[in-house]
């Protein structure tokens, strides 16, 4: 994962992965964490809500809500995105 004030890049390596994501920071309205799946043992995902209304899963299979939330806040700081509530997120 790489984040700068103007760009976010998520790649899985060292083997190339077709699910790589690259977004300009100005495309991202909000980052949020959300439960993934159902059942007792929830995994978590980190998602982005884009300005065009599209939602993208950036990372999945995160083991805890606190891990997802930590990544959310760290990326929001770097990308200079103010934290706001999002429906279906951990904070809703």
Keywords:
single chain; 92 residues; alpha+beta; 3-stranded antiparallel beta sheet; globular
What does this structure look like?
By secondary structure, this protein is of the alpha+beta class. The chain has one domain. It is 16% helix and 39% strand. The protein has one helix and six strands, in the order ββββββα. The protein has one helix at 65-79, and strands spanning 2-4, 7-10, 21-24, 28-36, 43-50, 55-62. The strands form two sheets. The protein has a three-stranded antiparallel sheet with strand order 1-2-3. A three-stranded antiparallel sheet has the order 4-5-6, covered by helices on one side. The protein is globular and about 35 Å long.
Helical fraction equals: 10-25%
User: What portion of residues belong to β-strands?
Assistant: 35-45%
Number of domains: 1
Structural category: alpha+beta
Number of helices: 1
Distance between the termini: 26 Å
Task: Tell me the series of helices and strands, N- to C-terminal.
Answer: EEEEEEH
The residue ranges in which pLDDT falls below 50 over 5 or more consecutive positions are none
Cα-atom radius of gyration: 13 Å
Strand order of the largest sheet: 1-2-3
